[in-house]
From TrEMBL:
Residues 23-68, 82-164 form the Nitroreductase domain. Keywords: Oxidoreductase. It comes from Microbacterium candidum. This is Nitroreductase family protein. Belongs to the nitroreductase family. Pfam families: Nitroreductase. InterPro entries: Nitroreductase, Nitroreductase-like.
Amino acid sequence: MPLASDLAPRFAQTDAPLIGALVERWSPRAYDRNAVVAPETVQVMLEAARWAPSANNSQPWRFIVAHRGTPEFTAIHDALMGFNQVWADSAAVLIVNLVETADAEGRERPFAAYDLGQAVAHLSVQAQHLGLHSHQMGGVDRDAVKAAFGLGETLQVLSVIAVGVPGDVDALPEALRERELAPRTRLALDEIVLRSAA
């Protein structure tokens, strides 16, 4: 019964020394369905998101936080699509990531999605630092989430994060278990840095 947390190969094989939370961060699907993440711990993660940079300090991110066992958690889980529904119910917390696409005067915020991405990155690294794992999901019925929570037109659902403690990999269906155990890979730096002038 291998636990996701026991899988040392999940650590990033980096070409430069990085902080521990980045090296150890990965996105499990196997979560311990009995583990609880305290609201105070989630607050710390959200505080990290709050201090992310944003264009003109607009802070266009908003979040819906739901703990396992609540109607809100069920509503978010029910809106997930595909394989996400198979495993995400074992996470301790589901967080909907929302972006405010226009300001109070109706002016478009062209960098809002980029800014939300930075806030979510801060949140996920803080979660890792706290000994938790997170998994980002884009497969979600955005209209269903908006309807379930009565969201206005300027708030757009971008993604959902599952947060929790890694659990038993063998509890996953075969197709997901293979993905959980597969080696982690990234493009080489010379493939993503198009030009670097020193």
